[in-house]
Here is the input.
Amino acid sequence: MPKLVIAIGGNSLIPDKDHKSVQDQYVAAAATGDHIAGLIQSGWDVAISHGNGPQVGFILRRSELASSELHEIPLDYCGADTQGAIGYMLQQNLINDFRQRGIDKNVATVVTQVEVDANDPAFQNPSKPIGSFMDEAEAKRREEEEGWDIKEDAGRGWRRVVASPQPMRIVELDVIRSLLDAGVATIAVGGGGIPVVTNSDGDLEGIAAVIDKDLASALLASQVDADLLLISTAVEQVALNFGTPEQRWVDEFTLAEVKQYLAEGGHFAEGSMAPKMRAVVQFLEAGGKEALITDPKNLERAMAGETGTRIVHG
Here is the structure.
């Protein structure tokens, strides 16, 4: 069967600021899961990755509020917690969808570690804000006592920042491949994977960092020989000059065009579409056939060629 890797954004489980609860996220996961079930029913073997930024933020905030009574939760454990919780939401909804559609398939969630290089240059310039805002006194105390990297955030207060290193190796890759080869819908590499490094003894250990979910999904797609990388995001199609009077929705890019636009800068916003386009480039340059970007409700229509933005070799 053809293989498809779908990368779901963590924000896609939170429709708006008034719908952030676990139950709200479950309902959003149900809607996305129904579209994924439709793709599986049409003949695709599917691996699903997901973002976890908002959910990790919630865990960190709860941890901070409870710190007078309970130990705080390390960042790598937050990643593991969200992989389990979001995986559970997607897994249960897919099982229900399969039953309703008469699909004879199994679903599994793999708590996934992704190895990064301890000497990655990103560790010399941590830039990914996490956790709550702090006043300067609290920020300096955390910096001194806990070794946090702290930065002032646009006049809104101080926040902890961590590195966003490049993903090198998916530790549980063989397990994920085996599940896909057995026809199991597999949820993996959640939140970009739990960042781990190899220590001086050759053992893996967790590290405080955040791996870009789309880059990790591109790596997964390459290493399971996926026919297509599908990135689900907030917009139905990719636009050039997004948010300007010159904005133009695009049905298809070639790889060369995407690389050119990324090199020129200004076409894709950093923090939103630019990282997704870099992930697409990584996947295609590693031998992937094509990529597709759309929003959750249009997954099936985009796969049918009715909408979305395709990126091909050209």
Notes: The first helix runs from residue 22 to 41.
